[in-house]
């Protein structure tokens, strides 16, 4: 009871009793959720609710710097990044144009393939489009995001190239918006609906240090590649943020284990010398008399198979560090499992350890991992869509592609699909049989199967038709090779074979 309760109790015990009853009822009501109480176990867990930007802005730069440090020095960190880069991008994406004109489709696809080369799509001329998007996926995992800036240049195949800008280059010092009523937060100008309308980008000299006045780029020419986790989130935060402390713990632990094992691997000895019994001079002058020369151990090392005599009375003591460390293997596995769980992928994807995996478990793990990668693919494809549409418009304006009625029916000529390079099978026979069954039962079409294998279904049919025709020309039954069945023999002129088949 507090001071007020004591006063109330002295005046009215009934009122004091009621106060205590209601207080207990109130405390029970507050403790419906264990996660919300402030009991002994949660006493130091003090948190607060804030907008996403207020939550992120004070930690964003420090988190990014630590993530980059682990990127440079942690194998576990790079295994996670590599898993996303391999599965989200892999061999890259192929365009399948879907206009009504097959010849126009081939023309656009040919032009796109040419533009994707490094000298045509990159303002620096150092990266192809596939290399750019691989870098973008990597930077998103580590930095939280990256900016694609559309640059309209005079050189190149079409007057359109991409410039990659790191999130560090967003100018944080600019606070004045270009348009009244807007606001600038984190180097980005927003309207009243928190929609980006422009980006203030710092300018550096080639040495990376000398800063000039920031350049304002309209939002229509910028693609900000990052994952938005909350409605109030304005800028990026590293995708690795939940697992950064754990990855660092793995590094620190493995370093400690490595040092311990190296020390234990170094066999060290002490020579315990016996004190001479005669000839001692308390003033340090003169030596003990002896008829035999003394052996010096200074600078001596132990070698394999060594046989060495020692002075009389000398004793060898081996240095053996005491104490046993934890089971490093099990600890590392547990931490890698937790890192994978935090990133939405399996332990096998993080560790590349398949020793304890079976076909079924590996297959299930790949299915679950693919669902995680699919979210990233969806976001990346949206960016590729915008890049492709800008390319087609630039190609039409520069007369690289001739489409007379493009502006009257633009959406029709911009229709397309992306086909990712196929993945290798775990068990080709099982996967092939499953694909065959799915197509025969109508669960999948040939078009879907071709896309899963990274092929255009029309091109694949054309290839098969060409092979069958050439085989028939050379007298080889390629149908039996490809489809597993022989062609029916041609009926004779009397129709005997035909009548037999009808009777059967």
TrEMBL record:
Residues 480-504 are annotated as: Disordered. GO terms for biological process: virion assembly. InterPro entries: Phage_lambda_portal. GO terms for molecular function: structural molecule activity. This is Phage portal protein. It holds the Pfam family Phage_portal_2.
């Amino acid at each position: 009871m507090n001071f007020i309760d004591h006063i109330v109790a002295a005046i009215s015990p009934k009122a004091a009793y009621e106060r205590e009853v209601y207080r207990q009822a109130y405390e029970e009501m507050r403790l419906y959720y264990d996660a919300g109480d402030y009991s002994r176990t949660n006493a130091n867990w003090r948190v607060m609710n804030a907008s996403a930007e207020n939550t992120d802005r004070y930690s964003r730069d420090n988190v990014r710097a630590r993530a980059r440090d682990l990127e440079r020095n942690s194998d576990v960190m790079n295994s996670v990044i590599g898993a996303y880069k391999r599965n989200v991008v892999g061999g890259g994406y192929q365009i399948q144009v879907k206009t009504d004109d097959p010849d126009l489709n081939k023309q656009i696809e040919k032009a796109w393939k040419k533009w994707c080369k490094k000298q045509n799509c990159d303002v620096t001329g150092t990266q192809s489009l596939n290399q750019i998007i691989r870098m973008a996926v990597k930077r998103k995992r580590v930095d939280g995001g990256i900016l694609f800036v559309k640059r309209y240049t005079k050189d190149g195949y079409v007057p359109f190239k991409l410039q990659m800008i790191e999130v560090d280059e967003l100018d944080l010092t600019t606070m004045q918006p270009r348009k009244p009523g807007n606001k600038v937060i984190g180097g980005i100008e927003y309207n009243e609906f928190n929609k980006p309308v422009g980006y203030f980008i710092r300018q550096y000299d080639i040495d990376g240090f000398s800063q000039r006045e920031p350049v304002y780029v309209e939002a229509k020419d910028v693609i900000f590649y990052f994952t938005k986790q909350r409605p109030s989130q304005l800028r990026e935060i590293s995708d690795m943020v939940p697992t950064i402390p754990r990855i660092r713990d793995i590094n620190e632990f493995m370093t400690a284990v490595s040092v311990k094992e190296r020390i234990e691997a170094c066999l060290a000895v002490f020579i315990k010398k016996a004190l001479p019994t005669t000839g001692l001079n308390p003033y340090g002058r003169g030596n003990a008399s002896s008829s035999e020369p003394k052996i010096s151990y200074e600078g001596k090392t132990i070698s394999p198979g060594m046989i060495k005599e020692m002075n009389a009375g000398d004793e060898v003591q081996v240095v053996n560090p005491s104490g046993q460390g934890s089971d490093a293997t099990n600890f590392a596995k547990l931490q890698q499992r937790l890192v994978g769980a935090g990133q939405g992928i399996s332990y096998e994807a993080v560790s590349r350890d398949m020793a304890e995996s079976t076909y079924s478990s590996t297959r299930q793990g790949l299915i679950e991992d693919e669902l995680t990668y699919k979210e990233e693919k969806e976001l990346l494809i949206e960016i590729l869509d915008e890049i492709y549409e800008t390319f087609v418009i630039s190609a039409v304006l520069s007369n690289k592609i001739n489409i007379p009625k493009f502006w009257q029916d633009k959406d029709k000529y911009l229709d397309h699909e992306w086909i990712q390079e196929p993945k290798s099978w775990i068990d080709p026979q099982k996967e092939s049989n499953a694909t065959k069954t799915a197509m025969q039962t109508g669960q999948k079409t040939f078009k879907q199967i071709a896309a899963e294998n990274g092929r255009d279904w029309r091109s694949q049919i054309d290839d098969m038709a060409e092979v069958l025709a050439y085989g028939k020309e050379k007298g080889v039954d390629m149908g039996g090779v490809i489809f597993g069945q022989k062609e029916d023999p041609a009926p004779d002129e009397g129709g005997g074979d035909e009548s037999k088949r009808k009777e059967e």
